[in-house]
Fold:
Amino acid sequence: MTFFDQLMLQLDEGVTGLFGQWNAYSTLIVCLLSGFITFQVLTRREPDTHPFLLARQARGSPVRQENESPVYRSLAAPHGMPLNSGLNVKEPGASKWARGRDGDLRDIWRQVVAGVQDDGPTKGAKGRILTVLGTEHVTEHSLDAITRQINLVGQHILDQGGNRVGIYLPNSVEHMVTLFACAFHNLTAVILPFDQSDESVVSMLRRSAVDTVITAPGSFPFKNVVKSYPSLRQLIWVVDEGSAHMDWNEVPQGTGSSVNVSTWQDIVNEPPVDAGKELPPIAGQKEPRDVTIFWQSKPGTMEEMVRFTSANLISAISAQLFAIPTSQRIGPSDLFLPADSLANTHTLVLTLAALFCNASVAFNSAAAQANDLAIATRGISPTVIVTTPAALLKTHQEATHTGSSFIAQKLHWLQTRSLTQSGVMPIASALSSYYDRFRPAIGAKPGKLRLVYAAERVGAGTPPLSSQVLSDLRVFTGARVIYALTAPTVAGAVTQTAFYDYRVFEDKISHFGAPLSSTEVLLRDAGDVKNEDGKSRGEIVVKGPCVAGGEAALGVNGYMREDNTLAYL
Amino acid sequence: MDYVEKRVAQEAAKVASTTTEFLTPLNLILLGLFLWTTYTFLRPASPYLVPADPHATIFKVFTPRTLLPFNGENNQPVYLAVRGRVFDVSSGRSFYGPGGPYSNFAGRDASRGLACGSFDEEMLTKDLDGPLDKLADLTPDQLEALQGWEDKFTDKYLVVGKLVAVGDEKTVKRPSACGFA
Structure:
């Protein structure tokens, strides 16, 4: 035979000989192999967002100043286009494509009352306003009753000659009503952080020059204030039902009688039922007034007073609305709980955004101080929460402690893999139902929570959350966690992690994501920390329509990571 | 066919025997295949890498002298100035670069030339060390034409600097390239 035939023969015999060894084990292995491949192919889930979108989350400007980095903007607000500055408010009958106006706080409440305007299954749906008292008791307030309160309280303050209204209340319906009353009746609102020492309260009142204060008895140092702050003209007590029978109109003896004292209940209940039903008309309304807030940094340091124009707040609200993908938008079926004080602009902006989306909003006056998610969510099952990093850390510690057994850890590892490798939230399956017992008890009904917001406050000493902690929290709560960077002179957040960003890195404190569509961030050389080509590092400077004064240097150093997200240096 | 018949006969004549051993070469090959497939599916995904953005150009203050080298020769980018703003027209190298029809403008103040619609040498400022061309003697038509050109440039090209007369560089405060719109 020729050489080629010989070769073919050898090849033939070799292959046949090899496969001639086929036995039961071979069949077994091949079955396992094909079973594995089929399982992987059938259970493969597409990541929630394309990995390329996570690999580059912001764009730097093509030109930069000598001592600064390029200006970074989110992909939703490209360079050359104006940043998000308005809510695109349209009149009820206008076409969907008509250009709306920027709007202000008044338009937010009008939207709450009008219900969902977009054609669709939820057209006309309105959110509910709930108050959680204690552990079980949940009361609902009708939107008409709240509108009436807004009108009556605002009118009362105006009649008494009020101009600057200080709000010293915990998270409550009255807090929100006063804010809207100030917006509708052209009063300047000053939001004071609740539960402060007497000297702080007096100092804040003096600095903000308020002439009216709305507060709750027990926490307000009335005698002290009347003595040290003679410019106070009006005081409105928000009294709970238990103490409503007492006479609150009495001014304590020895104090000046220049303060006009009344109670919320009197203002709201005295006028006839029909009074105050209609909101002031849109036509002919005056320019919206500013809102002043106090930024608390470390305990012991004086609070920083910041004045935000209505445009700042609206821009921040619109940016938060933009930050959530369309399919995950907050809507009438969501229940929003601010578990952080409404005196923080981040929480306030998110609450107003939730109201604008016609979501139901629940107020719990003990939530902010408790710093504990389980306590804050008693009695209701919120779907969206704003909370503090301290509360999240507490939840994380408790859940890690509960789930420290070997099996729990392995299940946790499996679910974390689903997040980091496949880029999807872990789905409920037979295996994960075993894991459910280790989940922290958040909300009356488990499994409803879908979104958690937390904010790192610059210079305020908030505990850091590493990306591992954030990922663990996603697994524990089954909800997406968004970590934002907030600063005194910026309404809302400076930067925020992406909705679908589940990546985990080795860090002590997680990165803060990309700028929002209402901010642009640059890093300015500061001391030894200098910018170079391709390496942006320096003091964080924020510009945008939501920054009080247009531009703000945050006083901390940061750098831009490879994926153009901001992180502390 | 002959070959096939012969081979079939050969195999048929063999004594049928099946090994019950696990560690046959075939099994080892199949096992290796299985383990490799498992590893490939279950290994941690490598992070997606997107190529780095190009470095940002640094915004500079130019004088007519320092602007001159940027005319496309020696691998330099092509810059030209319109009313005090320096544009990077390197993407239009075929027009403004060396050998192009408008190459007179490269590295120079092109305001007068654009206003009058002329590429002649006399449109450019002769004295590079002197003050900038004030454009005071242009007619309204020419000013309108210049505005049109400037708008077109702003849309199409990047502003990378500011043009001032020689000696004025120190007086320029921090030039601002882009703020939020």
Remarks:
- The mean pLDDT of chain A is 89.
